[in-house]
Amino acid sequence: MTRKKICFITTTSITIKSFLTGQMAFLKEHGYDITAVCAKDDSLLNDLPPTVTYMPLKMKRGIDGPSAVLSIFFLYRFLKKEKFDIVQYSTPNASLYAAIASRLAKVPVRLYCQWGIRYTGFNGWKRKLFKSIEKVTCSLSTCIEPDSYGNLKFSHQEGLYTPSKSRVIWNGSANGVDLSKFDILKKEAWRQEIRMKNNISENDFVLGFIGRLDKDKGINELFTAYKSISARYPGTKLLLVGPKDNSGGLHARLLEWAGKNESVIYSGFTTEVEKYAAAMDVFILPSYREGFGSVVIEAEAMGIPVIVTDIPGPTDAMQENHTGVLVQKGCSQSLVNAIETLIINPDLCARMSKNANKFVREHFEQKKLWNYILEDREMLYKKSSSSKEDSNGHTQSQSVDHYGGL
């Protein structure tokens, strides 16, 4: 039986560690030879399945013309040599480089996993520049799979690509939720463990955030809202799970206030997100832009009601007034109102908690998503194989809209 070759390309190893190692192992079990490409990180070898080939490639984040040209050249040379059937790429820089290199190398299936749209966080000339870059990535890809229906619709409206070459797999998300890790049966034990560790009493109402502490995640609005909430409800705590050194664009006075406030708890980075989610009463993601918002469904898996901004991505990760509350992007008062609603309505919180876990089990269970992904990759492989040669045995154009007619 012919082994199908697929190459996963991301800018940094954290994307592979967070979303792709399990998928790689699953596809390997079903007849695929897997290669992972990202910036060098020796620790990645500890996370990758032993049968996956790792090829480090120097890739910088941000805009760096000379570095980009070199990355594209070395990537092109590697892809041309290996003759992959499918190249799958995600994250902004890696996606641009891989789209160009794989097109030059005539890879038949060039799959852009669009896990976010970077330019939506910019204005003016910067927005126009990054939108142009996004269009290049999309135009060179034979198929595009955003991880949310919201971003699929937005991309069609923006003219980034046509419906015929794009779709969302199942209900969206990059990797679903591993319900054996986010185990609702362990919620109470983990809740007590984390609260005791962080000096949080059982009676405290904990508002939680998981992610980068920066402007795009809505941390300015979260701090502003919590200043108001903590003054009215002294029994609240704000638990921030994520690296404290990523504080770009945050207001200095808000940072100073949060740093001096004992009710604001910084846990730092953790690999045990499920335990910290279990310690929360409400999870908040006041982000300006997201591909999907995986932390939303992870919190819901632990039975935590959520508050998210009304933007593409997170709105697909919850059900309004059923598992959580939607708030206006960039509006701290909208956030205050939502938080207060849940604080003063414990019965509503309890209903949303029950609904949240059920919602995730039915819509985002990881292994079920993997089976849909496998089905999709099989379809892409078969379509690309049948389109490579015409009736005379001549190679046809490689730019095939792989979802046409489905």
Automatic annotation (TrEMBL):
What domain of life does the UniProt record list for this protein's source? Bacteria
Q: Where is the Glycosyltransferase subfamily 4-like N-terminal domain?
A: 5-144
Q: Where are the transmembrane segments?
A: none
Keyword terms of this UniProt record: Transferase
Q: Which residues form the Glycosyl transferase family domain?
A: 191-358
Q: InterPro entries, from UniProt? A: Glyco_trans_1, Glyco_trans_4-like_N, Glycosyltransferase_grp1
Q: Name one GO molecular function term.
A: glycosyltransferase activity
Q: Where is this region: Disordered?
A: 384-406
Q: Which SUPFAM superfamilies match?
A: UDP-Glycosyltransferase/glycogen phosphorylase
Specify the protein name.
Answer: Glycosyltransferase involved in cell wall bisynthesis
Q: Which organism is it from?
A: Salipaludibacillus aurantiacus
Q: What is the lineage of its organism?
A: Bacteria, Bacillati, Bacillota, Bacilli, Bacillales
